[in-house]
Amino acid sequence: MQLTETVTASLPPQAIQYISKLENEIEILKEQLNLLLQQRFGKSSERYNNNQQALFAPEEIPADTNDAEIETTEVKSHTRKKAGRKAIDPNIERREKIIDISEEEKQCACGHKLDRIGEETSEKLEIIPQSVYVTKTIRPKYACRHCEGTADEDKPAVRIAPVPPCIIPRSIASASLLSYIMIQKYQDHLPFHRQETQFQRIGVEISRQDMSNWQQHIYFFLTPLFTKLREVIKTGSVMQMDETTSQVMGEKDREDTQNSYIWLSRGGPPDKTVVIYDYRETRAGYNAIELLKGFCGYLQTDGYEGYDVAVRELPGIIHVGCLAHSRRRFFEAAKAAKKPQSAEEGLKFIRKLYEIEKTLRDKKLEDNEFVIKRKELANPVLSDFHKWLNKRANEVLPSCLLGKAVAYTLKQWDKLIRYLESPYLTPDNNASERSIRPYVVGRKNHLFNKSPDGARSSCGMYTLIETAKQNGVEPSKYLLELFERAPFAVSTEDWEKLLPWNISKS
Fold first, then answer.
1. 329, 405 Cβ separation under 8 angstroms
2. Which among 341, 298, 303 has a CA at the least distance from the CA of 322?
3. Cβ neighbours, 10 Å, residue 284
4. Which domains are assigned to the chain?
5. Which DSSP category does 113 fall into?
6. What are the tens digits of pLDDT across the range 239-261?
7. What's the pTM?
């Protein structure tokens, strides 16, 4: 409640300042409550509809609305989706089932036989649970009964075909079984203990410990492939990074309840995108230094200061910010504030920048033309946005949500505008956030890793699956072919042929 002038005049200055401070704190607490309610019960989407806000709060529309410049947008025509059930994929095998009338019914009362004039068809999708069979390998033995091998001492007396190489020797695990288990856990997020139960239902005994041991063996066997992926990711001009928490048990000198971190790197040439997951005990900046050694180019991240440490330590890296993180802060301020118009104004600037980006991307321009045109269209918007930010920084409380959004954007400004320099950069770091989401979803199911080695091998499986997806290769098919061919790889060239963008062509 604001103090009236009569009451204010009767109070000492110290009391007025104290009450004003309390009023500001109350407003901040109200914002925080509104934001928590929005996060708990509201939609998580950051789409914002100004018209809907005005519908419920007409008294909050500024008085000079009629004098404001009215923006007009062209509404494009649209096509309506056809109603009804979607047809079953024609590539799926069809097995016909004919339901015919009896021969007696095919006879007309006039004495003639009925002619077939057409048919009616309907389709139902059938599914058979996964079938399990054992491949029994038989290797005949040969020996000479006459000389017992003495006549040909250069060769063994008993001859037998060599054992075909496999990814896990002396094991019941085939390439198809290993591929199935890893896809179940790291793409479909089904932990080993649930898979163990599934196998039991179809009469197969495979313990969760066996599956865990197989995963470790695969990870170490494919070390040359992971080394190659780390080389490729640093050959591109842009790398994006993000990190998320993970609970790992058995860490040295650390409690099992302490948070560890999974660091994600996304980069490589435009046509060879690599996504690498790395386990680290902490979020300290030296981890970013280790992961970025050997890379030169643009590094796009959120505002975490650990990346600033790496950029200062490593030459040749240009730090780029994420406009989506700035937008999120303005969105939260608009949702929580009593009068959201100011935060909405900040969102309008950001929305214009994204509209420019989408329009130019849709035109499929050449790289140089795209960069020139983007700067030409975006720079005026950025200039107006920066002026608005500086003006609002002197008008709003630094501790309120809008104040924090303005402060964050101004602090990150030089990094936020660097996306204009390269055609391979976008305004935000959303691509890496989308790549880290599968781990976050899986974390809700498997909860924790039982050891640091388990965390590292889990990162390896995520790396294989997500890199395959980024290059348009079906992960299950990729893992199957990788596990079948990897035992035959002996040279660097052999391992290079097993990278996702090469294995699909060979």
1. yes
2. 303
3. 12
4. 221-321+429-503 (3.30.420.10)
5. B
6. 999 999 999 999 999 999 999 99
7. 0.81
